[in-house]
Model the fold of this input.
Amino acid sequence: MDITGSENRLSTVRAVFLNLAVVLIGSAVATAEPKFHSVSSLAELEETLDAARGKPALVRVHADWSVSDTQLDKQLSSACARESLSNIAWIEWDVTAHSDEDRQFLAKYEVFGPPTLLLFDTEGNHLKEKAVVGYLPVEEIVATVANTFGLPQDSTLANCIASEDASKLITWNELIESSYEYLGKSQQALEATYKLSDHDRWHIDQDEGTLTLSKGNHPVAEAEIAIVGSVITAHGVWRWSWANPSVEQKLAAPVDTVRQYGVEHGLDKLTDQGWPAEEFDGWEMAAIANFLLQGKGVYPAPAGDSIVFVVITDIRNVE
Done:
């Protein structure tokens, strides 16, 4: 079944689309983060390693879109962890932009992606086989670093971390904050490049898996999408796409990643088929989906008494 919409609610959508990015970027609450020395070029990395000679170095490979990085931030922000690794030079390379320099760095050190921790000895030599890849509890990270460099290990570390509650999984509020921040940046980029608010018709082709935006009778942009779910405004209910038989399975399947994340982290809103909701809740669920799927942004498609929320996974202008 295809879904089409036109002018009746698009003026509201335009206003929301244009203003949401500014609101969401400001809504994330600042949290404590480890104090890494940031580098963004191979020359900078070399200089920083030279300056740190005599101390082992840990280079963290980070990206804003990595959920596991959010968990790692919380772990490494622990005073217990910082104390245990106080004799280490802390360096960070942020690959969020995936620039040419980022790609050169990833290729040189054979890094698949974040989160990854690279270890360098006191002479600045890369210890390739000692890299910590993926998310690990901080106790294991500390043990790996300490064993590699022969550093003393604090036997009370585990108890210290437990008392700080630093080893818990990401909380709901942290997920919301990260998702809003990522959505704000996504929406700004979409609007700047594709002017998605400047149209008067939209059409979802479920067979093709596309969203087409038109001005008059002329398509202006075509996007590949995943359908997240819908808010039925007349009844005040949210319904996930994977629980809606009218949504084609191939458009709902990507969102199962969100449901599985909810199962793993005990987040009921991501696993319950439906629940009482308002339009804002739809934006919230779509923001989370966009974040976890590393989407390019969200589009709210008003359809009768519902608003269908989709994540844009790819997009192009239509000539």
Q: What stands out?
A: Confidence is low (pLDDT under 50) at residues 7-34, 163-169.
